[in-house]
Specification:
Blueprint lengths: L12 H60 L3 H12 L8 E9 L4 E11 L18 H13 L3
Antiparallel strand pairs: 1-2
Amino acid sequence: MEKNVKVIGGLSRKTKINIFIIVFIVFLLAMVLSSINQITNIIKNREKLFELEQKLNWDRQNNIKLLAQEKSLYKKETIESEARKQFNMTKGLETNYFVEIVNDIKSGTGISDGSIKNTDSGSSQGKLPNGVYSDSALWENLKIFYDSEIRQN
C-alpha cells in the first residue's frame, strides 16, 4: 500500500494541515496581543481625559470666583480700604501717624523713643528718615533691613 501513495510536495497532507493550523493560531495570538495593547491605550486615554476635564472644571470655577472677587474690588469701600492699606492714603481731614524707631547701632537693637510723627493728608510724604519702616515702601524697607541686620555681621 505504501507503494500506491505518491508524495509530490515533500510533505504529507496531514503535515500541511498541522502547519496551517499552527500559523493560524500564531496569527490569532498576535492579533489578540495587539488588540489588548490598543484597549489598554484607550483606557489610559480615557482616564487622562477624565482628569483633564476635572482640572478644566476646577479652573473654570476658580475663574468664576476670581471674576466675582474682581468685581467686588470696584466698590468704593473696597477701593478706599485698599488705598489705606497699600498706599498709606487718607480721606478728607484724616491724618497718618507712624512711630519712628531709632536704632542703637552699638547694641544692634531698635529702640522706640515714643515719639509719634504725623503726616498731613494734604502734603506729600517725601522720603522717610533712615531706619524707619513704611507700609508703602517695600524696597526701602528691604534696604533698611539689609543695612541694619545683615551688613552689621
